[in-house]
Hints:
This protein is globular. The model has no long low-confidence stretch (mean pLDDT about 90). About 40% of the residues are buried. The protein has one domain. Strands 2-1-6-5-3-4 form a six-stranded parallel sheet, sandwiched between helices. It has helices at about 10-25, 35-45, 45-55, 65-70, 80-95, 105-120, 140-150, 165-175, 185-190, 200-205, 210, 215-245, and strands spanning about 30-35, 55-60, 100-105, 125-130, 155-160, 180-185. The chain contains twelve helices and six strands. It is of the alpha/beta class and about 240 residues long. Helix 1 (about 10-25) crosses helix 5, helix 2 crosses helix 3 (about 45-55) and helix 2 crosses helix 12.
Amino acid sequence: MLGVRIGTRSLEELVSASLAAIRDRKDCFIFACANPHSLVVAHGDAEFRHALEAADAVVADGVGCTWAASVARIPVGPRITGSDYFVSTMRELNRIGGKAYFFGSRADVLLKLSERLRSDFPRVVISMLSPPFKPWSEAENDAMIDAIRDFQPDVLWVGMTAPKQEKWVAANVSRLRVPVVGSIGAVFDYYAGVTQRAPEWICDLGLEWLYRLPREPKRLWRRTFVSAPLFLWFLLRERLAQRLP
């Protein structure tokens, strides 16, 4: 879809693949999400597009992706949100007594996140780091990678905005020595309770964007009124080009 391969595996299959990576500790399983906004950004950002292509699983997080795929008859898997994958994987980590590292967001968000995690997943050993919001130096990046590697997590959760998080993972994954890396963005804020998610029935109707827009206008207006129309136009143009002789 717009040059990015969207996976077709179910949530259960993705979690199973993640557990296999944790058990074998050979190759890193990289998880990422795609929505209309991120696909539009990747359409004009080769580095971001290559980062998504390097991921082992890119899921259709936004309902716009699954809707457009149905209309354009593009085979993609079921809608799987970053929250879905995060909770399911953490449950399995809790079952086996694993370790998880949280990299991203603000210190106050991480504090609230840790409180809930310790309640919901008491058998998961966790560590956290909030990186500088300014562009960091190579030395700072090396120090943060060392901190992650010293902890030896089973899963590294990266909670920065796209495409920053995906680009960082692609650039540093060979040095991380982590079996599973998941770029899950705003899930940190959602799970910490800093940002309220839409009720489940609204999500089921595919109207979560409408619920969030008046609550996060600065963050979401461009996604809604610029990226969404561009996504439909790029997708239509792509499908028409494929049908031309």
